[in-house]
Amino acid sequence: MKFSKPLIQWYLQNKRDLPWRKNTNPYSVWLSEIMLQQTRVAQGMPYFFKFIEAFPTVKHLANAPEEQVLKLWQGLGYYSRARNLHATAKHIAYNLNGIFPDNYNDLLKLKGVGNYTAAAIASICYGEEIPVVDGNVYRVLSRYFGIETDISSSGAKAEFTALAAAHLPKGKASEFNQAMMEFGALQCVPKNPNCYTCVLSAHCVAYNTGKVQQLPVKLKKTKVTNRYFNYLVVNDAEGKSVVNKRSGKGIWHNLYEFPLLETETLVSSNAAKELIDNFEGFNFTPTTTTLLTNTIVHKLSHQHLHIRFWEVATNTLVAGATDRDFIKQYPFPIVIHNFIEKHWD
């Protein structure tokens, strides 16, 4: 009770006024949880409103074309979330008569729904007494109880889940789980938390032993691959351009991009121009090739993309080229969308 009671009291007094907390509708809770994976609330909130406006129910989302879903998701990143969201909406609308599963085990069967999201929906919407464990929860529990287990290790999730379950008050699953997530987001933040105003500091092991900055322990480092992209922006005799849909596995599946020339290293401008002039994807010879941007470093979780945009102009008509205003309607990775917004009138 030293932990859960003051934590819940703090939550009830300090919780943010978030739109998905207005009710326990599983559609809005599910939508918010998927959006907020790898995304801060401030960044995700406008997207939540856009989706609710465009797709007020799960059936509206299910009936939408994928390109509309991806276009509205544009900028949130981790686009597999959007594709899984759409697939799950179809499953719920067409196979489950529009009704969400009402328990943790059945929620886990939904595409894109893992342990954390299933636990969040089950506890918030249905009161099921099952704990949530995410980055915020790892941090709160490891600091308060002084746990030095590496959170990236194989047994960490089971250990922290068991600890959270042991302190979950009967009949308070929704409040307790949301309190832990909110406390980690607002009070027990990763760097320089204000422990002097913390309602849990009296019994917090990390605070009382000077280990706040050392916990939680995470030893595993993410291996980052560098890739070098040259995007070729065609400008033909009518001012039209060319885009392709990414259909292979990997990043940005089903999003659009300009013809791509990828190199193993960041080659010089002269070397890049020579490669572009001989690019096999074109059925024309460029009249001029112009570098439009300096190198943009776009950081993904496991990849750093070093991106340059080149204008490839020709005084002929290019087969398959499309009007630029039409191209703007396609869903793009945010780095390409930003380029179009800045460089295309």
Tell me about this structure.
The protein is α+β, with helices and mostly antiparallel strands. The protein folds into 2 domains: 4-214, Endonuclease III, domain 1 (Orthogonal Bundle); 225-343, Nucleoside Triphosphate Pyrophosphohydrolase (Alpha-Beta Complex). Helices cover 42% and strands 11% of the residues. The protein has 15 helices and 7 strands. Helix 2 (26-35) crosses helix 3 and helix 2 (26-35) runs antiparallel to helix 8 (115-126). The mean pLDDT is 95.
CATH class call of the largest domain: Mainly Alpha
Overall shape: it is: globular
Q: Approximately what portion of the residues adopt beta-strand conformation? A: 5-15%
Number of domains: 2
Rg (C-alpha, Å): 24 Å
Distance between the termini: 61 Å
Query: Mean pLDDT across all residues, rounded?
Result: 95
CATH evolutionary superfamily of the largest domain: Hypothetical protein, domain 2
Share of helical residues: 40-55%
CATH architecture of the largest domain: Orthogonal Bundle
